[in-house]
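Quick one:
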Amino acid sequence: MALLIYVDDILVEGTDSHQITKLKQFLDKTFKIKNLGHLNYFLGLEVYRTSEGLNLCQRKYALEILEENGFLDAKPAQTPITARKKLTSLEGTLLDKPEQYRRLIGKLLYLTNTRPYISYAVQQLSQFVDKPRNTHLMAAHRILRYIKGSPGKGLFYPACSQIKMQGFSDSDRATCSVTRKSITGYCIYLGQSLISWKTKKQVTVSRSSSEAEYRALASTVCEIQ
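Output:
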């Protein structure tokens, strides 16, 4: 049995329903808790159960981001980022209200909990939160238009799946035009369920694409272990 606690919200999961019931009775006797039943909504995460499996999404949270930034009626984009677009810290003009950009990027980072396919785009934009420019904000708006096309997308965990662990890694050499550092990307599957993923700038500069690939592979192996 495991408990996930955030301030005064608690999730309980386990394989013994009797033990879970005893725990809830103990917590209610000690703290007077409110039992909301099976998990449906938790910290912006929406959970839907069917006989086929479990679906996680952040539809309500995504729609709130779109509404806050005025993109509910925007034209959807097919991709979260423009292909081969290289953002820099010097191109464009500084924003008058950088806090709005920082707040947007922070919310998009939380949205990657169920939408890993925007991780790379958000990772790129998060590098410019100190001095954001209009070009960075335009790129962030493209992510919003991409989300507009499918606000309810998320992750699906099938009820029946082969217990086989698989890892996939990739790298983008010298992505950063300033530091010449490469990007590591990986995703880990347990059966058909995506359980871990990351997009992150590598710590050191790779001298070749092969070296960048090996660094990405090493990070993936460490995550699997």
